[in-house]
Amino acid sequence: xxxxxxxxxxxxxxxxxxxxxxxxxxxxxxxxxxxxxxxxxxxxxxxxxxxxxxxxxxxxxxxxxxxxxxxxxxxxxxxxxxxxxxxxxxxxxxxxxxxxxxxxxxxxxxxxxxxxxxxxxxxxxxxxxxxxxxxxxxxxxxxxxxxxxxxxxxxxxxxxxxxxxxxxxxxxxxxxxxxxxxxxxxxxxxxxxxxxxxxxxxxxxxxxxxxxxxxxxxxxxxxxxxxxxxxxxxxxxxxxxxxxxxxxxxxxxxxxxxxxxxxxxx
Length: 266
What we know:
Elements: H1 2-15, H2 17-23, H3 28-49, H4 55-66, H5 75-84, H6 91-105, H7 113-135, H8 140-161, H9 163-168, H10 176-182, H11 191-209, H12 219-238, H13 252-265
Helix pairs in contact: 1-2, 1-3, 2-12, 3-5, 3-6, 3-7, 4-6, 6-7, 7-8, 8-11, 8-12, 11-12, 12-13
């Protein structure tokens, strides 16, 4: 597992710079397990996004593991078997994550905001639930709605940040009802749409951040991660709500200031 842990650390630092910064605030005894979890989620997501031939089989393997069935011994299943010996992993969350991956494999679109929310729960709200189980909570049933909301908020943020990149790849993660109400996704003509979508993401952040106090460990790390992701919404506002095409990026120095302020408040 030493080589797998090294891969998990390098993958996190390379592919998730914001999340990697927040992980530095995690207690050392749980940090490596969080890296391993990220490796599982990121690997499946990348396989699906890249349209790799083995994507469906690898997703199915984790779904089988989540269902308690005998699963093929993939990298992800081996990691989950080890982590399950140390943490009470919520297997239903992994099954739901795999359902979200299948939506991407099938190229599903979204007619309504409820459908977008369901997708965001599957691919990111579930990650929040798993993180909460690993960090520990005073009461999981009370902490889980907030954990899921924070993950969903981050996913909605990713959708807004990556609009142009997704369009270039033939993907649209905004609800058709929103597009019909506010107009299309063309740069310079999507300000009303982004205002509406940003407000939806902010509401999820508000629900998610209040649950951080339920965590037994890692409160500062989660607060910092949530604040840094939320700052992307503020950057979209500063840039004129999609006036120009491109990906919104928060400068590292400001990102660190936001993270420090959030961690201090906790």
